Amino acid sequence: MDLLAHLEAYVATAEEAGFSRAADRLGIAQPLLSRRVKTLEEYFGGPLFDRSRRQIETTELGVLLLPYARDVLDRAQRLRQVARSARRSRVRAVGVPADCAPAALARALRAGTEHGVTLGIRELPPPERESGLADGSLGYALVRTAPERAVFQVPLGVASAPVPDGTAARRTLHLEELRPRRGRGAGRAAPPPVLLLTEDQVPYFEDRLARAAARAGLPEERIRPAGAAATALAETLAGHALLLCAEPFARQHGAHWTPLADRALHRGYDVRAAPDRDGTAAAPEWLATLLASAVGAVPHRGGPGPVAGREDAPARLAARG
């Protein structure tokens, strides 16, 4: 039984006080309307209308159930309206890293509304953002790629415990500076580990970092994958670890941040869209710019791909090992 259609027949008959007028109102044949009312009476286990008189009257059961029937029809109508509105506004899920700036994401949401697109933000690790584009569960995503081929780059650095006076000079950090010092006595504490957020636990980046650390003389066990970002931040702020991350993320949580000198260890990002039916995909420029700002990215000066005569030497060496 199509409950909504049968309830419409019941409500129309009660309001019009007649089967013929109710059928005209709904645009259906009177016999069909009568059958729907009869079926509904069997469903509820009692008559809804008294047909013994020339003009039908609603029974006590019919009067009792009428407001509930109207409420069901009203809710169904609102549900259809919401569905139509959602289709018109083109709801699109957007996959982003977990360390995005909330204010920048808010700007992206507002801009989506202005462009007639309802965006839904989903924090996902890099592999799930790529698979989400492939299976259609995401409309757009910030996708990790090698920095020398990326449209956007995010400088990475090392976060550490806050500097007491806050006057530490701005400089770049070479991985060689993190090597254990010679002559360390038995009573001295071991150097803190360098923690790697989930966002940087991607094969090509881990491979580059491992090779760069080996050249710098850092022990392999010194670099460890971090679990939850909150735990990694707590250890960093307490002075028990160093955290590899982007500057906005470190500053947001009050950590001291020093940029890495090796540009081959930057993060690279492209903003991609799920493929359309014809296999093409392109994210709107306004969205790409706002999502890039959410991770502190800047446009890659060399563009999406190595440019003759402008290839980044550190990136080339890291890629070749």
From TrEMBL:
It comes from the Bacteria. InterPro entries: LysR_HTH_N (IPR000847), WH-like_DNA-bd_sf (IPR036388), WH_DNA-bd_sf (IPR036390). Pfam families: HTH_1. Residues 1-59 form the HTH lysR-type domain. Keywords: DNA-binding, Transcription, Transcription regulation. Transmembrane segments: none annotated. The keyword Transcription applies. Residues 300-321 are annotated as: Disordered. PANTHER family: HCA OPERON TRANSCRIPTIONAL ACTIVATOR HCAR (PTHR30346:SF0), TRANSCRIPTIONAL DUAL REGULATOR HCAR-RELATED (PTHR30346). Belongs to the LysR transcriptional regulatory family. This is LysR family transcriptional regulator.
